[in-house]
Design brief:
The protein is α/β, with parallel strands linked by helices. The protein has two domains: about 5-110 and about 120-135, HUPs (Rossmann fold), CATH 3.40.50; about 165-290, HUPs (Rossmann fold, 3-Layer(aba) Sandwich). The protein contains nine helices and 13 strands. It has helices at about 15-20, 40-45, 55-80, 90-100, 125-130, 170-180, 205-225, 240-250, 265-280, and strands spanning about 5-10, 35-40, 45, 50-55, 80-90, 105-115, 135-150, 150-155, 165, 190-200, 230-240, 255-260, 285-290. The strands form two sheets. Strands 1, 2, 5, 6, 7, 8, 9, 10, 11, 12 and 13 form an eleven-stranded mixed sheet that branches. Helix 4 packs parallel to helix 5 (about 125-130) and helix 8 (about 240-250) runs parallel beside helix 9 (about 265-280). The protein is globular.
Length: about 290
């Protein structure tokens, strides 16, 4: 599946436009169209105590969103990218999923800003989206640094696709994530493959899994090299989440790719234990393939 069309939901927060600009790197991966989406949450226009509805407020919010989207469309047109936009009222996650299906997008991009060292990137709405989406989701990251008392400096991740890390457990969704890598042949210069063997295994089982993983990763790496990628692979022993986060930083990768289901586990459980936690705590963008 190529990345021809992406869905970019936005609340017009700080750096949203910067994130959209950074995503244009995907043009080398075949990006042709961006679907822009703004969801006005019902609480913003519902007058709950009296059961009324603030129609004028809805129109005001629609006008603001329309003006911003028209400006963004002009920018995308100058970059040779087609675009369209939707302004809807309701619950954001169901609306995002519905538009993704109706417009048949190839990728959903959901951004989140991190302000504090221990703050997570994944909130309840993001987790709901990850658990329910049938489309790949790119969790884009905004980093904020305190530079002086009372001030902060925020940036978006750049060079999105130059060095990709695929963390795999060899499940079906990990196999799909591996195939999804082919979409990045243009912008990706290097791909690192990683499998983490749980340190909780006994020595015989640990050695057996490590040996089998090396053989599989070697085969994957050869396939990537045949397609023109520069590839390397590693098998590490430890706790999967911690090892993935550590390797993604130490090896200078720009984005982490993972499947969203694991062997022998139902989807939400695996999301809660591995891929969700990587998406929560990684400073890098994380692309999850269902």
């Amino acid at each position: 599946m190529a990345i021809h069309k992406i869905l970019f939901p936005t609340k017009f927060r700080e750096l949203s436009f910067d994130a959209l600009s950074a995503l244009l790197e995907l043009k080398e991966a075949g990006l042709e169209e961006v679907v822009l989406l703004h969801v006005i949450e019902r609480e913003q226009v519902g007058f709950v105590p009296y059961g009324g509805y603030l129609k004028e407020e809805e129109e005001r919010l629609r006008d603001i969103a329309r003006l911003k989207f028209e400006e963004w469309q002009q920018f995308l047109e100058r970059k040779g990218i087609k675009s369209k936009f939707h302004i809807l009222v309701g619950n954001p996650v169901p609306k995002i999923l519905a538009v993704a299906e109706e417009d048949n997008v190839d990728l959903i991009v959901a951004g989140r800003k991190k302000r504090q060292a221990l703050e997570r990137y994944i909130g309840s709405s993001m987790l709901d989206l990850l658990q329910r989406s049938k489309k790949p989701v790119l969790v884009f990251k905004y980093m904020c640094y305190d530079i002086e008392k009372g001030r902060e400096f925020c940036v978006v991740n750049q060079q999105l696709c130059e060095h990709l890390l695929l963390a795999t457990d060899f499940s079906e969704s990990s196999e799909r994530a591996f195939r999804f890598l082919e979409n990045f042949k243009g912008p990706a210069k290097k791909i690192t493959l990683l499998h983490v063997v749980s340190e909780d295994l006994g020595k015989p089982a640990l050695e057996k899994e490590a040996s089998e993983a090396k053989a599989k990763l070697s085969e994957f790496s050869q396939k990537l090299q045949q397609k023109g990628f520069t590839s390397q692979y590693y098998v590490h022993i430890g706790k999967p989440v911690q090892e993935i986060l550590k390797i993604s930083q130490e090896y200078g990768t720009n984005m982490v790719l993972m499947g969203t289901t694991g062997k022998g586990r139902w989807r939400a459980l695996w999301l809660g234990s591995v891929s969700q936690r990587v998406a929560e705590f990684s400073h890098l963008p994380v692309l999850l393939v269902p």
